[in-house]
């Protein structure tokens, strides 16, 4: 079993290729539990405590971390920032220290500010797992995406992966890019000019295009990203209808990709905007499988960080 070199899981950038592969191997074992009729068959975290601290909304990440902890026998508590003493002005560091002082073995945190998990990790003795920080990273999303790709394609070397949508605001795009580059895939970022980071062309070993047809041509894997409704007020594209017409994925344009292409999306999906309903509900979509793999990956990283990290 792989031993992770750090106390925390903060970003994919910090992980080696071997650590990523080792997490995926362990997640594959955990997946057998997720799809089985006996979720309590491995109680490796019995007697441990996992606290889940979210400063932003979530369905998939928060629930799957909570279930992951419970499936492995840990006790877990959800702390919604809006209903906690954060709303009375308590700082992130003080909040983290108080949570750690309850005998906590790991803190899972989502925060709107890029870098917040690094600040928390420096100030608490237990592992911190980044569940998404600002525009920066979403490492467990990338790991579940890698597990989904590996299960469908058998590996990464030479795969063409097109990541399409709101790249500018996407922490998933960043984490997926680091993971795919380390694992040997070829990545294309595709988005409208206003949805691409400035100077993105400077990033090495990355294709960039504004033309969806060019991105889809010959792709093995297509990852669509959520168009962030909350950004629409900034006028980054004319309308959702226009976006769907120019950049949306549908059964017609996906034919430009390889015959055995898979389509993924981190969720939540705006049906009919970044993906047509017909494509989302078709056999090429792996979106539900991604969610199953998410629970598996989160079980794996909780077990590795609490029970198996180097020097613990
Ligand atoms: N993919 C993802 O992070 O979804 P949630 O916001 O529902 O957790």
Descriptive notes:
By secondary structure, the protein is α/β, with parallel strands linked by helices. It is 36% helix and 14% strand. A 5-stranded parallel β-sheet has the order 7-6-5-8-9. A 4-stranded parallel β-sheet has the order 2-1-3-4, with helices on both faces. Helix 4 (116-123) links the parallel strand 3 and strand 4 (128-133). The chain starts with 16 loop residues before the first helix and ends in a 5-residue tail after the last helix. The model has no long low-confidence stretch (mean pLDDT 95).
Structure, briefly:
The protein is α/β, with parallel strands linked by helices and 312 residues long. It has ten helices and nine strands.
Number of helices: 10
Distance between the termini: 15 Å
**Backbone CA Rg:** 19 Å
Q: Could you say which small molecules are bound to this protein?
A: phosphoric acid mono(formamide)ester
Ordered list of secondary-structure elements with their pairings:
Layout: H1 17-34, E1 49-54, H2 60-71, E2 75-80, H3 92-100, E3 106-111, H4 116-123, E4 128-133, H5 139-153, E5 160-164, H6 171-183, E6 186-190, E7 206-209, H7 212-216, E8 221-224, H8 240-247, E9 262-264, H9 277-280, H10 287-307
Helix pairs in contact: 1-5, 1-10, 2-10, 3-4, 5-6, 5-10
The structure holds phosphoric acid mono(formamide)ester.
């Amino acid at each position: 079993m792989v031993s992770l070199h750090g106390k925390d899981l903060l970003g994919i950038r910090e992980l080696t290729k071997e650590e990523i592969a080792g997490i995926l191997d362990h997640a594959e074992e955990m997946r057998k539990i997720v799809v089985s009729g006996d979720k309590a068959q491995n109680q490796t975290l019995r007697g441990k405590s996992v606290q889940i601290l979210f400063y932003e909304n979530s369905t998939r990440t928060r629930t799957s971390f909570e279930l992951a902890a419970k499936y492995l026998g840990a006790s877990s508590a959800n702390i919604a920032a809006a209903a906690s003493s954060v709303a009375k002005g308590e700082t992130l560091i003080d909040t983290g220290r108080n949570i750690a002082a309850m005998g906590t073995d790991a803190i899972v945190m989502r925060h709107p500010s890029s870098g917040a998990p690094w600040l928390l990790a420096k100030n608490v003795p237990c592992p911190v797992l980044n569940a998404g920080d600002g525009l920066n990273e979403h490492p467990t999303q990338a790991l579940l995406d890698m597990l989904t790709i590996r299960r469908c394609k058998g590996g990464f070397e030479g795969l063409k992966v097109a990541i399409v949508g709101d790249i500018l605001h996407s922490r998933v795009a960043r984490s997926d890019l680091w993971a795919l580059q380390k694992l040997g895939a070829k990545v294309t970022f595709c988005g409208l000019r206003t949805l691409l980071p400035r100077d993105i062309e400077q990033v090495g070993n990355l294709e960039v295009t504004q033309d969806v047809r060019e991105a889809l041509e010959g792709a093995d894997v297509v990852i669509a990203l959520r168009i962030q409704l909350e950004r629409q007020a900034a006028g980054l594209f004319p309308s959702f209808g226009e976006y769907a017409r120019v950049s949306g994925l549908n059964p017609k344009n996906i034919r430009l990709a390889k015959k055995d292409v898979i389509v993924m999306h981190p969720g939540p999906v705006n049906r009919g905007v970044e993906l047509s309903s017909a494509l989302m509900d078709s056999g090429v979509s792996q979106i539900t499988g991604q969610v199953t793999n998410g629970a598996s990956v989160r079980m794996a990283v909780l077990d590795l960080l609490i029970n198996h990290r180097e020097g613990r």
